[in-house]
Amino acid sequence: MKRRGFDYSQRYIEHGYLELCIPPTEDGEFAMEQNYLHIWPRGTFMMIALPNQDRSWTVTLFMPFHKFDSLDTPEKLVEFFKECFPDAVALIGQDQLVKDFFATRPSSLVSVKCKPYHIGRTALIIGDAAHAMVPFYGQGMNAGFEDCRILDELMERYNDDLSLVLPEFSQTRNEDAEAICDLAMYNYIEMRDLVNKRSFLLRKKLDELLFWLFPRQWVPLYTSVTFSNMSYTQCLSNKQWQGKIIERTAILMVTVLLLVFFVYLTVRMSSPDVRVTWSPQVAELTCEAGCDRDDVPFVFSHTHTLRREPCGRTSRARVCVCVCVRALRASLEAAGVEEGEGPWRRHVGQNSR
């Protein structure tokens, strides 16, 4: 770190971790389905469980240090687990939980970035020495193995000339190493918090659908990181442009829907409606017009054809549309009732629902 031109940074996050254990069942089997990573996401903290070959489970609790410090008695610990992880209490066992929790202190989590990775042609750091990361993407060892693969490819390309290999490795590998460090940090937020949000789950389903439709063009982030040789930088870049496409498509869809709704309202409001409210006078006149009490208030649009026929209904949710309004209009005018007075009201540009 004292060498001139050597950039170095380390970041300790405010969360620590502590390991617990779920033993096998009495008949020696796994206590949970063994082919899954089990996660208990709780917003600001989480717990995960990974299966072991002896059919036990390594349980890791990730939580802010101040939360660990607050659980300073067995009673507080058991109460906390019963509130946040009630199913885990029975799996771990209350006595074993207390024993394992207070047997050690929570450990720290750190992310390390530095460059360059070499000194001249004599020394090179790889793996955690060059790019330690938090464990939430499960890529620490994989990134170290990838360092070895890339170094071997460069050795072959430059005929083992370390004066060319080492600078090239530092230059090409640093960007990818920092990308996976950032992705690992992001995945902690995803695992403990985002997986509980409907919008995130919907996006995951959409990613799966698009990946099924376009397997070469649309590769989800986790798939590209875990199951391909795509560079971590490219994985991160794909995540960013995919997010932009989803965001812009959503904005476009909302804009189109609003435009359609605006056009609908404009057309609707451009057609004046006539509403006849019920009154004893209208009751007498509607009988003459062939309408009954259940058919009012009557609503019609000027675009409707008006005929002297019995009234018809559109649905129970709307007022009926009276097709005998012409006869009713004539009867009202003969009785001296003018538009805008008494029971006859004209609504121009008003929704008549």
Question: Characteristics of this structure?
Answer:
5-stranded antiparallel beta sheet; 353 residues; 12 helices; alpha+beta; 3-stranded antiparallel beta sheet; FAD-binding domain-containing protein
Protein described:
It contains twelve helices and ten strands. It has 353 residues and is α+β, with helices and mostly antiparallel strands. It folds into three domains: 7-109, no CATH class; 197-270; 273-347, no CATH class. The strands form three sheets. A five-stranded antiparallel beta sheet has the order 2-3-4-1-5. It has a three-stranded antiparallel beta sheet with strand order 9-8-10, with no helix packed on it. Helix 2 packs across helix 3 and helix 11 packs across helix 12 (325-334). Residues 273-278, 293-324 and 339-353 have low confidence and may be disordered.
Gross morphology is: extended
- Major pleated sheet: 5 strands, antiparallel
Q: Largest sheet, order of strands side by side?
A: 2-3-4-1-5
Order of helices and strands: EEEEHHHHEEEHHHHHHEHEHE
Total strand count, please? 10
The unreliable regions are 273-278, 293-324, 339-353
* Total number of domains: 3
Could you tell me the strand content as a percent range?
15-25%
Distance between the termini: 75 Å
Mean pLDDT comes to: 83
Counting DSSP H or I runs of 4 or more residues, the number of helices is 12
Rg result: 36 Å
InterPro entries: FAD-bd (IPR002938), FAD/NAD-bd_sf (IPR036188)
Domain FAD-binding: 76-151
Transmembrane segments: 249-267
Protein name: FAD-binding domain-containing protein
